Amino acid sequence: MSSFGYLLFTSFYNSSLSNPLKPSSYRQKYEPLPTRQAQVENLRKERFDVLVIGGGATGCGIALDSVTRGLKTGLVELDDFASGASSKSTKLIHGGVRYLQKAIFNLDIEQYKMVREALRERANLLEIAPHLSAPLPIMLPVYKWYLIPWYWVGLKAYDLVAGTRSLKWSYFLSKKRALELFPMLKRDQLKGAIVYYDGAHNDARMCLSIALTAARRGAQVANHVAVTALIKDPEQGDKICGVMAKDQLTGQEFPIRAKCVINATGPHADSIRMMDDPSAMKICAPSSGVHIVLPGYYSPQSMGLLDPDTKDGRVIFFLPWQKYTIAGTTDNECEPDFHPGPTEDDIQYILKEVRKYLAPEIELRRSDVLAAWSGVRPLVRDPSKPDSQSLVRNHVVHTSDSGLVTCAGGKWTTYRQMAEDTLTEVLNNHPDLRSKAAPCQTIGLRLEGGDNWTPTLYIELVQDYGLEPEVAMNLAESYGDRAYVVAEMAQPTGKKWPKAGRRIHSELPYIEAEVRFATREYAQTAVDVIARRLRISFLNVTACEEALGKIVGIMAEELKWSKSEQKKQIQEALQFLENEMGLHHEIQDGHACSGDHHSKDGKK
């Protein structure tokens, strides 16, 4: 046990002798969310002002904007919340340093406006979900003297555009200081480094928090509900008045009635547009971005790294995340695949680029890759512009003749502004909704878990519940003030220390109670849990495979699964790990292996 852990144990043990676990005023007032079954039933029965198709960051943001304006709002998602690109990002909340560089040197006012907007949204996102996000210093190592003023000017301009929303001002580091902060760096010819600040976040849980906040405000949100057709009213000139939906879990089909239907399906936006009009032009030009996860010792836990200029013009990030290291990304044209997987070429490309910046004595091996994934991000064309074949850098909001509103493009950081722009379009086209809608409420609106979070919350969890510090920290950072609710569900360990919180795997800080709580957060499949509630599959696919049986067993108790359903869930989760997260793709010493990669548990 670490000295810090021992001190917390002593504090807990001494306080528990005279003071049993004290109740929290927050825990007493926590109200569970409506069940998914209740949400689906309400979608079937009620008529909505706004119905959103798509449960990524954009769709959930639109639902939250709509419901907080006082509009009756519904949302359906084919798979799970954040199952697409919203869970497969670089985990950065950023303004776009390279966009600003292009804006300055190309005198491009549109690029400048986009960066300014993103920096404003970055500040808001860090404020509304402090448990899920934090500022992150990112180092640009410099190996040529002439690049120092080039990078310096660009990053100082980034600070100036951020203005009062700047996280911290960028600064220069000597070679000696850069190596002290990032000792893994290649030393030869290093001239120094420049450090700037952006934000980092837990993307899938951030998206989930937006969805849960919308649900708590009264929106009816349901994952695993497909839209099979758009409903049009011939008496209203074939205007869209709802959708035909199918519950993917029960097979039940039903109509959902709505005054306005919004298409927020990311790279799949064209499929919904063609339901509306089979002759509609395609506006999406999807691009895949692959990331890999490495052990945490490859990067300092308080500093990231950016290679701003690879040989082929891409950008490579090397970032600490969840005590591990993320490296990426690639940028390749692709089809709008619902289940993209990483290619070996892309993984090798990232490893090759990262090796250029590591000290020669550090051998970065293919077998160090603990997980890998590909996210499909949408670049879009604006169908309302004369030059409709050119890609736009920002998002597009477009209304078809039948009233389908499509919001596409953009990036994670600007989801809130995209939602506001979409609602502006909706209200302009629907005077009846405009007359009753309040102004936008989402600037500064705390997300689920953020209201009563404090940086010391995890210490309370250790002292009140006897949790391990690492487990308590993970609960506080994943659930915010809802961590108390999860801690209440934690079962005794039967040990002196920790008192409670049975881990689902020895290498990871997740506990069994989180799996139970995940079903209260609308997790309906094993993949929902391992990918988007607990993030295990994004950190270590081998450990995830080993923990799968335990996870499915706990879910079976909560969701009343039969033995055959449990077997099906395990098979589908293994398929997900193999096809989308890089399980059994390891290469050791230059040879492909079948996945015989042992964890510290000694299991296969």
Automatic annotation (TrEMBL):
It holds the Pfam family DAO_C. It catalyses: a quinone + sn-glycerol 3-phosphate = dihydroxyacetone phosphate + a quinol. Its main location: mitochondrion. Residues 440-565 form the Alpha-glycerophosphate oxidase C-terminal domain. InterPro entries: DAO_C, DAO_C_sf, FAD-dep_OxRdtase, FAD/NAD-bd_sf, G3P_DH_FAD-dep. It is found in: Mitochondrion. Gene3D superfamilies: Alpha-glycerophosphate oxidase, cap domain, D-Amino Acid Oxidase, subunit A, domain 2, FAD/NAD(P)-binding domain. Its cofactor is FAD. GO terms for molecular function: glycerol-3-phosphate dehydrogenase (quinone) activity; metal ion binding. Keywords: Calcium, FAD, Flavoprotein, Metal-binding, Mitochondrion, Oxidoreductase, Repeat, Transit peptide. Residues 49-416 form the FAD dependent oxidoreductase domain. Belongs to the FAD-dependent glycerol-3-phosphate dehydrogenase family. PANTHER family: GLYCEROL-3-PHOSPHATE DEHYDROGENASE, GLYCEROL-3-PHOSPHATE DEHYDROGENASE, MITOCHONDRIAL. This is Glycerol-3-phosphate dehydrogenase.
